[in-house]
Design a protein that fits this description.
By secondary structure, this protein is α/β, with parallel strands linked by helices. It contains 22 helices and twelve strands.
Length: 588
């Protein structure tokens, strides 16, 4: 055990990319220059590095977001042709041609992703596959590309006025670019962008409830991935000395996709493993085309059968301490649970949320019919009623998932009924769902870091500390055996979801049946947590069937029936009303 711990301590520094990346660069340079970039084996190593740049780029939309994209071969070809044209026709150096290829790939990725990101994964795959076919057809028919005969790429200088660089210099430049891409890819995964991307992949609806603008995030991720694909292609002509349409067909896009699937889509190291195996093996076996396809197929079948998430399935990533949200000192005052004022100043109207004659229909069904609500700051409103009465629809309309068709919704006096869900969430609205929604691709620490990143900047910072202390108290944070949601039971998943919502320091917390499936002890903890949240000035709207909990915690109760307000008042009068008993509790 001691020896194992010692080995772990020795390996830990090597796991940092700023430590092992220079070592990897030195090894790559030594191997390539020893083989000679102009030799057959040196060419294989160089081509693998180019594929590595493109495959790491593909791992952003394909691995981080889980998108089915078949267009990486197309942007690789665009980068290759862009550099080749600028060099062959205009004599521009590498310092100009390769960055232009990078930007061109990003622009093409943006043009593909802007419409395609609104489609499902299969639709995105069809759009990108069509782009691959179109790019090959354009390259075949344009004279500037050399048409079907291709384009010869002459030797080129790195900087203007410099001497033409030889194979060794090109190889060194490619090796440096590949390692730099790997480091950038690594840190992108560790960033809030990476966490938001994997949250979108895990559950897009829950990511939106955090405040993630999932559409533009996917467009950005696709553009970055395409730019890196074109960056790899930008060097291709200088290695091959020639570019032609046949080099960038759909089979190349499939090869890039197989690399990340084989190694482990979404992980930091997995694509590198896939690149080494899937990238080099076809090149090595190119002399034996009759067995090449069988070897590739067998490898893919074995991995998908026994390791369906790839060779490296680990998607969790550490959270750097300096990335954690800077929580400002809490305002002076009583301890949580005793304070009665929060971080938001009281206005002439003390209502945080106001709904006026809000209606919503689905076809001929009136899900909400002229609902009025006034929820004061620091209060708990419970919404009860039979199944199908419109309780969850009410929450979805407040959050913007279903826009209100008539009436108005005001949050702190600002109309929100025309805003998108992510924009409403960023205004300080947090919610949970009937079935706990967490992010299976993220660790517990990443959940908290993501919630704090999307916290309301005007919220009470004590809420973030309250959420973390609560998750620690229930054994989710700090437990040695718990790293992610996959290790949690239903009750702890529910607490993780609620803790994430509170860590966002919301003005308004919407809880949809939070006590469902919880034990009596867990319900007591939930009650205390809600009490602490409202003591800090936040308001809570609670949809719940557990009437004992409602009577214990709510300041006011709204009873709904068939989309309408049936009754509202204090919880002590709930069971005494005849209309409520008939519609919801039943009469004997």
């Amino acid at each position: 055990m001691t020896a194992m711990k010692s080995r772990t301590r020795l390996l830990t520094p090597l796991s940092h990319p700023l430590v092992h990346s220079p070592l990897a660069l030195a090894a790559i340079l030594a191997i390539g220059l020893r083989l000679g970039p102009a030799t057959y084996w040196g060419f294989l190593v160089t081509l693998t590095l180019l594929y590595a740049i493109a495959a790491l780029g593909l791992n952003i939309p394909g691995g981080f977001f889980g998108a089915l994209t078949m267009g990486q071969g197309a942007v690789f070809g665009i980068g290759a042709y862009m550099s080749a044209i600028l060099t062959a026709h205009y004599g521009l150096p590498i310092v100009v041609t390769v960055p232009v290829s990078f930007l061109a790939g990003g622009l093409v990725g943006l043009l593909m992703a802007a419409p395609a990101a609104r489609l499902d994964r299969l639709g995105l795959g069809m759009v990108t596959l069509g782009a691959t076919i179109i790019v090959a057809d354009i390259a075949t028919n344009l004279s500037i590309t050399g048409g079907p005969n291709g384009l010869v790429v002459p030797p080129v200088a790195i900087i203007p006025g410099g001497r033409a660089v030889g194979p060794d210099g090109i190889y060194a430049l490619i090796a440096f670019t590949a390692v730099l891409t790997y480091v950038g890819h690594w840190y992108l995964r560790l960033s809030n962008f990476g966490r938001s991307a994997l949250a979108t992949k895990s559950d897009q609806l829950a990511a939106t409830a955090f405040g993630v603008n999932t559409y533009w995030l996917q467009v950005l991720g696709f553009s970055i991935g395409s730019a890196l694909g074109a960056l790899g292609g930008g060097f291709y002509g200088y290695v091959e000395g020639f570019v032609s349409p046949g080099s960038f067909g759909a089979d190349l896009s499939v090869l890039f996709l197989l690399m990340i699937l084989f190694g482990g889509a979404g992980s930091r190291v997995g694509p590198v493993l896939g690149i080494v195996v899937i990238g080099i093996l076809p090149l090595v076996l190119s002399r034996y085309p009759s067995i090449n396809i069988y070897v590739d197929g067998a490898l893919l079948i074995v991995v998908m059968r026994f390791m369906p998430r790839g060779l490296c399935a680990r998607s969790y990533a550490p959270v750097r301490k300096r990335e954690r949200r800077r929580i400002h000192p809490a305002p002076a005052g009583p301890r949580p649970g005793i304070a009665t004022t929060g971080a938001w100043s009281r206005s002439a109207s003390d209502d945080l949320l106001v709904l006026d004659q809000v209606s919503r229909s689905f076809g001929g069904i009136r899900a909400l019919d002229k609902v009025d609500i006034n929820l004061a700051r620091g209060q708990v409103m419970a919404v009860v009623g039979p199944n199908g009465s419109g309780k969850t629809t009410l929450m979805n309309v407040i959050c913007g998932y279903y826009p209100a068709q008539s009436g108005s919704i005001l949050l702190t006096g600002q109309p929100i009924q025309q805003r998108r869900p992510a924009a409403i969430a960023r205004m300080g609205v947090a919610r949970t769902f009937q079935v706990p929604k967490t992010f299976r691709e993220l660790s517990i620490d990443e959940h908290i870091a993501l919630a704090e990143h999307y916290a309301d900047p005007e919220g009470d910072p004590r809420l973030a500390k309250l959420a973390e202390s609560f998750l620690r108290e229930v054994g989710i944070v700090g437990a040695s055996k718990v790293r992610g949601p996959r290790e949690l039971d239903h009750g702890h998943l529910r607490f993780l979801e609620i803790g994430n919502a509170i860590a966002r320091c919301p003005r308004l917390l919407l809880l949809d049946e939070p006590a469902a499936g919880l034990s009596a002890t867990e319900i007591e903890r939930l009650l205390q947590l809600i009490t602490d949240v409202t003591a800090m000035g936040s308001s809570v709207m609670l949809v719940e069937h557990h009437l004992d909990l409602v009577c214990d915690i709510a300041d006011t109760v709204l009873v709904m029936h068939l989309g309408k307000e049936l009754w509202h008042g204090e919880p002590g009068q709930l069971k005494q009303n005849d209309l409520v008993r008939e519609a919801y509790l039943g009469v004997v």
